Fold:
Amino acid sequence: MHYNLFRMWHSPDVMYLLLFLSALGMALIAAFYLRRRSLPLVQYLAWGVLLVFVPFLGPFLVILLRPGRPA
Structure:
């Protein structure tokens, strides 16, 4: 019984779900960070595209590069 629960928890479907949720969480953190910065609309869109299309690197770049000035 215990082996079946362990095997079910590590199924590929669960791993894909966890991967998706972690990427979504990082994108949300970066989006909330961008919301506090003072940027023109075009730069908001450019940073937003980066954070959506580069799911794991984009949010880190948005926070580390600190675009614009604090609002």
The longest helix spans residues 12-35. The CA atoms of residues 12 and 21 lie 14 Å apart.
